């Protein structure tokens, strides 16, 4: 587990209704439990707290420990700097307790002369995951003070030794770290305390994942993604248009490559059209279309492209030679189903529904969520790419992990929502996201846009309604 993942989990946990108060309560209780299990009860405990949430965990631990131990809390810093609601809440509780002693140490001069000889255990809740740079005063002096008692008292750090990874850091007997043992940490003993995240968080896509995927990269036109969409035929022009419309809210530039016959029917000024001659894509268009991919960050191929033999051949040849990250959707999937080897060495997302999945891989996804996810993961591994199986729960895998998405509603069975989804995924790929993240977050945003439409119109709407709610979905995520 990486520190970036912790942020995603916290955000998704909040989305499930698990509040930061609950997490802090569990974190502090976990610290208290670890101490009592290791060292027994009836202890004299000093708890050094900073003004961030690491300190907040310390406040909670103090309350839990106070039941059977003699506890003194040293707040290092000014109490008006206790900012988060959950830390403040727990601080206010502590101030009402008569059996917990509180000492406020606003500057280093108050720390230097402290004598901590009477304490059996010193808890270090000064700095945690929010540490930026070398520890500054008065925290720095507090770290040094604690280290004077190394080997004399037991020193327990909350989450990580304060100051880590700087030179000035607490030398603890162990740290109580939360939920998982974090890969990045080294050089100190760790005990893991679970803080109430459900298993769903390993797999469920939520606003935490989406926030990361939507981060802007630059201030200049084109820096935030250029997407090329290849689709349309004699019979269809709406499908590539819907994909382009949805994507245009996310990336800077969307180029729509279509046979001129269908391109003529598009009048939307948001679109940059790149018509190619004729009514349908054929091998003859190959060089021209490949040249267009050069200035794109990602490519979508398939929406409304049709199933003519010469078009299917075009799709396969194109995929084989395209060097950009790809989303292959709809008729494009049927074209490559005839020869999956065109995917070798490519970076791509396939977006089949159950029927297309069977056409591609000869097996129908059936059974429980876990069983279906197992099959999607197996096939993703075989083709060395990302598969998004569309359904009531969308399942996404890169062959190593699997994710699922629950946003969306029955109204989205209407034609064209798959094109909107492909457009969003392509846009997220063009922003530089991994195929796994682009596909997972694409499914989430598409469903969220659909749910936003449902709030206004009920379950009878069209795919264009969904595409037009993409900016609302994005705004919701960024403000969450
Ligand atoms: N999901 C979880 O794992 C949970 C973790 N919890 C605990 O929360 C902390 C992280 O809290 P946060 O408020 O983000 O940061 P800190 O408390 O680590 O520090 C912020 C605080 O410190 C000041 N500061 C930053 N760098 C320095 C420095 N170099 N010198 C001095 N002061 C510094 C900054 O200005 C802030 O005031 C995590 O570690 C867990 O303990 C939650 O309680 C439960 C969920
Ligand atoms: K700490």
Please tell me about this protein's structure.
It is built from 18 helices and 16 strands. The mean pLDDT is 96. It is elongated, with a radius of gyration of 28 Å. It has helices spanning 3-15, 20-39, 53-66, 85-96, 109-112, 139-147, 207-213, 238-248, 260-263, 286-293, 309-321, 331-337, 354-361, 369-383, 417-430, 435-457, 463-468, 470-479; strands at 44-49, 70-76, 100-105, 121-125, 154-158, 174-178, 190-193, 226-230, 253-259, 272-276, 298-301, 326-328, 348-350, 386-389, 394-397, 402-405. The protein has 480 residues and is an alpha/beta fold. The chain binds ligand LP7C6HRI and potassium ion. The site of potassium ion (K) has 11 residues, from β4 and β5. Keywords: ATP-binding, Isomerase, Lyase, Metal-binding, Multifunctional enzyme, NAD, NADP, Nucleotide-binding, Potassium. K(+) binds at residues 54, 124, 162. In the C-terminal section; belongs to the NnrD/CARKD family.
Structural class: alpha/beta
Arrangement of strands in the largest sheet: 10-9-8-11-12-13-14-15-16
In the CATH hierarchy, what is the class of the largest domain? Alpha Beta
Number of domains: 2
The CATH topology of the largest domain is UDP-N-acetylmuramoyl-L-alanine:D-glutamate ligase
Task: Quickly list its features.
metal ion binding; binds potassium ion; ATP-binding; Rossmann fold; 16 strands; YjeF_N_dom; UDP-N-acetylmuramoyl-L-alanine:D-glutamate ligase; binds ligand LP7C6HRI; ATP binding; 480 residues; 16% strand; alpha/beta; single chain; nucleotide-binding
